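can u pls check wat happens w/ flavin-adenine dinucleotide
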Amino acid sequence: MQSLEISVRLHTDPDSIKNNSKDYGNLGQEIPSAVLYPSSINDIITVIKFANNLSTPFTIAARGSGHSVRGQASARGGVVVDMKSLRIITGNGVKISRNPDSLGFYADVRGEQRWIDILFATLEHGLAPVSWTDYLHLTVGGTLSNGGISGQSFLHGPQISNVLEMDVITGKGELMTCSKHTNSELFYAVLGGLGQFGVITRARIVLEKAPSRAKWVRLIYSDFSKFTQDQEHLISIANGPNYVEGSLITNHSSPNNWRSSFYSPSHQSKIFSLSRHTQGLLYSLELVKYYDHDHDLNAIDQELESLLKELNYIPGFMFKKDVSFVDFLSRVGSRDSTQSTEEEKIEAHPWLNLFVPKSRVSDFYTGVLLNIVHRCNLISGPILFYPLSRKKWEDRMSAVTPDEDIFYALGLLHTSYMSNESEIFDKVNDEIMEFCEEGGIEVKQYLPHYKSRKDWIKHFGPKWSVFQEMKMKFDPKMILSPGQRIFNLV
Ligand code: FAD
């Protein structure tokens, strides 16, 4: 790589290597040979082209915020491209334009930008993207490589459904603009494509007028089927909520956690005493209705009242907040993936995220949520469970979902503390996957992590042949995102 070091900033110092060997998961390390701190996208093109010209090319991984949990942004023995350095050089501005086709607005954002910065930059124009993640310190390139889901996805689709155009540096080092109409193969391959086809340097994102405030409600249930029926009702009605999520409250997944400190101490103790009568298991439905300063407040309250009237939560267990749009969207505070504090150094995150087909939710509830998750007596973290609508996911995108109109997103966001505890969680995760496999519950992993080619082929199902074909077309030397372990199995 010597001649390469002369033309771009490749770093091999211990700090650069260390900071790019681990990710938020903290479940192991993958040591790169060098780190590129690009000062322009030309630097990335240079490195990719250089690798292509070698008889044995090295691998290259773009690293956004490094918030993967299983080494997906790593490049063992290769080059990690620290996208953050572009952000530092180019700043946080976004270019906003009016879409001549739809008369709506869009923003051209860069692959390395974080959603939190895009939020503030677009709000300066009274606009905002429509689809979010719960946590905004993730990059555009990182979430568009997966999907980008949250409580708005049932309405607007995941973030990948709200992209109009992208600039991508392919695995051959070619900078290409792609959209539904231009280079559409590349466009759809990259969306949810796990970084396999190119490095996203620009994305054109749909914007809408930003609301100014949010009525934020949480409702407690002791009956799982009432909880899911109400979630499904809310995502099916016209003029319903702007956001719907849900979570489980267990002895090991308290109502307040790092994701959100919604409840006051008195509300928490009220919920705790209720959970003593329900074997320590409750369900929290979360919904939000946006509104503007100039709206009639009484009318908004009445709209919310009539929504709530139709729901079957436990009487007296409705909790409400009225917050600014910004405070709602930025409710999950920054979580540093470089593991800065002593506590964070010993934290690991053996997460499992699944999409569960609606038709098997009841079996999944008994077999997984009750008999595996609730019974395993471990300190854990948030357990998210909320419905999504498949018709908001374009089938040509690489992202994979169950083959049903409605499916649920499960997020088992475990935190483990002792050095061997993550293995225990991984055993639980394996048990869940085995239960689904044996019971024929066709779940799909979100933020997938598999160890064998066979599992990847099963994951992609009918999309596998196109996925493979696109890899041969755009990254034939298998250079990009080796940490996903799809084509670079170790
Ligand atoms: P990285 O971890 O840096 O990279 C992820 C993958 O994308 C790698 O394969 C990498 O090579 C590739 N990549 C990175 N940048 C680019 C680029 N510019 N072009 C092409 N490929 C690229 N997800 C949700 O959908 N909803 C949530 O609410 C949500 N909340 C989260 C909360 C926390 C605390 C954490 C840690 C994760 C959360 N995630 C959520 C998961 C998150 O979306 C993914 O892990 C995402 O990949 C992280 O983005 P990143 O910028 O850190 O990507």
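The first strand starts at residue 10 and ends at 11.
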